[in-house]
Amino acid sequence: MEANDKILLAHGSGGKLAHDLITKNFVTALDNEILSRMDDAAVFEAKGRLAFTTDSYVVNPIFFPGGDIGRLAVCGTVNDLSTSGAKALYLSLAFIIEEGFAVKDLQKIVASIKATATEAGVKIITGDTKVVNRGGADKIFINTAGLGAIADGVEISGINAKPGDKVIITGTIGDHGIAVLSQREGLGFETKLKSDVAPLGNMVAEMLKVSGKIHVLRDPTRGGLASTLNEIAKQAQVSIRLDESKIPIREEVNGACEMLGLDPLYVANEGKMIVIVSPEDADKVLKAIQKNVYGKNAAVIGDVASDHAGRVSLKTALGSSRIVDMLVGEPLPRIC
Amino acid sequence: MEANDKILLAHGSGGKLAHDLITKNFVTALDNEILSRMDDAAVFEAKGRLAFTTDSYVVNPIFFPGGDIGRLAVCGTVNDLSTSGAKALYLSLAFIIEEGFAVKDLQKIVASIKATATEAGVKIITGDTKVVNRGGADKIFINTAGLGAIADGVEISGINAKPGDKVIITGTIGDHGIAVLSQREGLGFETKLKSDVAPLGNMVAEMLKVSGKIHVLRDPTRGGLASTLNEIAKQAQVSIRLDESKIPIREEVNGACEMLGLDPLYVANEGKMIVIVSPEDADKVLKAIQKNVYGKNAAVIGDVASDHAGRVSLKTALGSSRIVDMLVGEPLPRIC
């Protein structure tokens, strides 16, 4: 198949063109011994606790500053595995492609998936390709499901946040959402901002090495920091108190949010983790994060309390306090 | 949320409406102790060999005689696990929904998923919901990934077909494809035919109980019996010889195929399995299949030979022989 070819309905047929697309473009590019057996199910050995997660990616545009839908599809699922403290091992990869999609764009996406999977230390061991008629889908959607292994003694869940715990964010907020929005037709604005999309498995492994008292890990993607903290507060039946002046945020993100009428607390991140940890370990966990390439701007941004279960509040830079609710409405469709 | 409501972009936002949709419609309906923790990754204990597979479902229309996209999304993935001899354990469930989709249709689909998962004995333990703008996707797409456990001693793969083996099909071919096509605008024709969509895990377990010499299992979905057998012939470097007079096929399917200019050998099935087994066990495996509710019309339809590696041939009802290639082109887009 030539790079200037287009994807045809027949590429999703289960017939000859589908077979050729899969063997020549996917299996060769993503080569590993499980995938190359070409059975309908991949087989591997497992022992102990496994984490399992799935996400579909419908981001628009599919190429954006700092990343693309392929890197996003690997990082999003790897990071969801990391939220359970798991080391990501295997991914599935399923494409839904619109008829007429450029093969060279598909090849770019597969190359990005390969590079990101290598960085994250995961193997893609099973997959699927569907092609829908023109207008039946917008360019390309990707689903990845992931499997990871959880070490003995690691017990991380949104239900484990405890009063007194410290809340850490591993870097600046809102970078992904604003970088994607900057590319939207009609919203185009000048910025050098890049998406933060990154796999955080190594960072999480480094945290777990220095502390056995990490209670919650959660990546604040859709809905942003505010919605994710609300979910945790409801799960654990605690309150979370943020200090606005401590939340790391880039000037460009603040500026774009003002222009667009957005609150950066609700803007998606794709390379950040919320870490809730016992207060006595907060400092060493923070230091471990800051040593990681993706954690230089990490900061303690608040703590967990027992009053007002389910509530997230923010002490503003001016010293007043306000309640920070879940996102209501949808200012940012197809951000991931 | 009321049944006459529509899905909004905000239902995919990660915010309040998304949280409500997921807790009230998905977690409650699909209730199990892992899913209801509401973490980003589901955690379970595993030991031994696991099978892992994924498929996206883009069938059009989403409700068709004998099934719907929800039943299809469970059966397709459960059956792919069965092709490795695995007992299906867990599924992930990811929706991509078009803005404006009727909530009552989503509820019908979730109820169908629940009923089919119960029938198949699998739990849905993790999920995702994305909503795209009107026109960004056609109604609803579903991805399921699945995990299953493979018992010790079970070694089933497309590479294991051996000269002398018998080829069994577990029932009539083409029912799913023709049932879906009968509902297409412009193609509408009168038929009482229903899709065969069904979970085949129990049938496979019953086969494995009576024989340790099952070499290959494969469900002939997209591309039909012919394309799937071609894949196996290429994987195992053998030839497969079919006897046309033995292939079970309904009158309605034959009639519709004649009218539409289709060859039933290339029409999709969603409740059938190809079984390749040592000749000495073929009879007892066939009997075990025929006892299953989904296997009454099972038949031995051919055998495996060593000449012409990679070739599938058919002895026609008239006694001549012809080569049966992989599907070329795509007569049936969005059949699954």
Description of the structure:
The structure is a homodimer of 336-residue chains. Chain A folds into 2 domains: 142 residues, 60s Ribosomal Protein L30, Chain: A (2-Layer Sandwich), CATH 3.30.1330; 166 residues, Phosphoribosyl-aminoimidazole Synthetase, Chain A, domain 2 (Alpha-Beta Complex). Chain A has 336 residues and is α+β, with helices and mostly antiparallel strands. The first copy, chain A, is built from 8 helices and 13 strands. Chain A has a 7-stranded mixed beta sheet with strand order 8-10-7-11-9-12-13. In chain A, strands 1-6-4-5 form a 4-stranded mixed beta sheet. The longest helix of chain A has 18 residues. In chain A, helix 2 packs parallel to helix 3. In chain A, a hairpin with a 2-residue loop joins strand 2 and strand 3. The interface between A and B is large, with 88 and 88 residues. Strand 1 of chain A pairs antiparallel with strand 1 of chain B.
